[in-house]
Amino acid sequence: MNDRITTFLLTPVIAAGLAGCSKSVTYADVEPVLQERCAECHTGDQEGVVASGFSVDSYETVMKGTKLGPVIVAGSSASSTLYRMVAGKTDPEIHMPHGKNPLSNEQVETIKVWIDQGAVK
Ligand code: HEC
Question: N or C: which end of the chain has fewer CB within 10 A?
């Protein structure tokens, strides 16, 4: 079978497996991703915090969002700026992490499922 068809057939299976997984995804699953990929610019008074107000210091600051308001809509990854930015669904200029390798598919999926399940702590 050709690779594109294999990918096409398997991607929904993997996504369904994660989404339908009985284990619920909480902030404890998401925090390591944010610490690894975002913290260098989005904690304390680092450049990302100064520029946008968005900080990954705690669950509360993540849920608070930017100076302009929330970037997570609990229950809807599709409406959540944070998910759209890391999933490459926004203008390339504001993809996060800035100027770095994108998150792995697994990291993006963890964030997606967490938001869709209600973005609980
Ligand atoms: C290399 C530094 C850097 C890294 C790493 C980084 N950011 Fe940012 N981030 C910025 C800067 C600078 C801004 C503000 C300017 C801009 O939006 O271009 C910003 C802005 C943002 C905003 C606000 C966007 C808006 O339009 O208001 C969000 C949300 C965000 N980042 C999330 C993240 C997430 C989530 C990660 C990790 C996956 C991440 N960032 C990693 C530097 C970074």
Answer: N
